[in-house]
Amino acid sequence: MLNEFSRTELLIGEEGMEKLKNARVAVFGVGGVGGYVVEALARSGVGALDLIDNDKVSLTNINRQIIAAHSTVGRYKVDAAKERILDINPAAKVHTYKTFFMPDTASDFHFCDYHYVVDAIDTVTGKIALVEKAYKAHTPIISSMGAGNKLDAAAFQVADIYETSVCPLAKVMRRELKKRGIPKLKVVYSQEKPITPENDTDVAMKNDTSVIKRQTPGSISFVPSVAGLIIAGEVVKDIIGIK
C-alpha cells in the first residue's frame, strides 16, 4: 500500500523504514542548520523527534531558515517546526523544549533515551556540554561546525573533529574536546575560509555610555540548508546501518 514514505522504502527497504520509525532523535537548535535537519528526518520517516531551542522566529531568519516565513515571525521555532513535522507525518511523536541548552540545563535531558543526537547550536560551551553528555551516555552524536559567513555550499565535508582544518569553530572544539579526553566526534564542517561581513550593526550590550558590538555572521539560503541536509543524511544512514 502506498504511503508518504513509499519512495524511501524503495531505497532502504522495509527493515530500514522500521528502524527509522522506531528511532528517537534529539535536535538541539532548529535554526538555519537544525531546521533542515528536522525537515529531512521527518520526511525520512523518523518516528520520534525532540526539538530543543528557546528562540523565536524573527524577520531576519526568513532568508535561510525553513521554518521562517512572515506567517511564523514571533512564534517559537520549536512550535513552528512541530507543526511542519506533524503535517508531513501525523504519526510522528514530537517533544518540544523551549530551552537554551547550556551546562546548567543539561540535566533536563536524558541522553540515554535517544538513538541519536544532533548538535546544531551556536555556543561553544553548549556544544561541548552536548558532546560530553552524549559521550557519557554512549549515544551517537553529530555536530555542526560554522556555517555562517560562507558562500560555497560544496565545501562541506563529513569528518572526525580531529581531522578538520580551516574552520575556526572546529579548531576551538578540537582543543576543548582533547582537554576533556573525548577521542572522537563526527562533524560536518566547511573548508571555505569565512568571509568578513560588509556591515555589522547589531548591538550586543550597552553598558552606561559605552556600546559594545558583536559581529553578526552573514548567511544565505543555500549554505546552512546544505549542512543540515548532510547531517540528516548521516543520521539516517547510521540509524539504518548504511556505510
Describe this structure in words.
The chain is an alpha/beta fold. Helix content is 34%, strand content 17%. It is built from six helices and nine strands. It has helices at residues 6-21, 34-44, 77-88, 124-137, 168-179, 224-240; strands at 24-28, 48-52, 93-97, 116-119, 141-144, 156-160, 186-190, 203-207, 210-213. It has a seven-stranded mixed sheet with strand order 3-2-1-4-5-7-6, sandwiched between helices. A two-stranded antiparallel sheet has the order 8-9. Helix 2 runs parallel beside helix 3 (77-88). It is globular and about 50 Å long. The relative contact order is 0.17.
List descriptors.
single chain, about 240 residues, alpha/beta, 7-stranded mixed β-sheet, two-stranded antiparallel ribbon, about 35% helix
Question: Summarize this, please?
Answer:
34% of the residues lie in helices and 17% in strands.
Strand content: 15-25%
Low-confidence stretches: 201-213
Helix content: 25-40%
Main-sheet strand order equals 3-2-1-4-5-7-6
Shape: globular
Would you tell me the overall average pLDDT? 93
Number of helices: 6
Rg computed from alpha carbons, rounded to a whole number of angstroms: 18 Å
Largest sheet: 7 strands, mixed
What's the count of strands?
9
Structural class, please?
Answer: alpha/beta
The string of secondary-structure elements, in order, is: HEHEHEEHEEHEEEH
Q: Report the span from N to C terminus.
A: 29 Å
List the helices and strands and how they pair.
Elements: H1 6-21, E1 24-28, H2 34-44, E2 48-52, H3 77-88, E3 93-97, E4 116-119, H4 124-137, E5 141-144, E6 156-160, H5 168-179, E7 186-190, E8 203-207, E9 210-213, H6 224-240
Parallel strand pairs: 1-2, 1-4, 2-3, 4-5, 5-7
Antiparallel strand pairs: 6-7, 8-9
Helix pairs in contact: 2-3, 2-6, 4-5
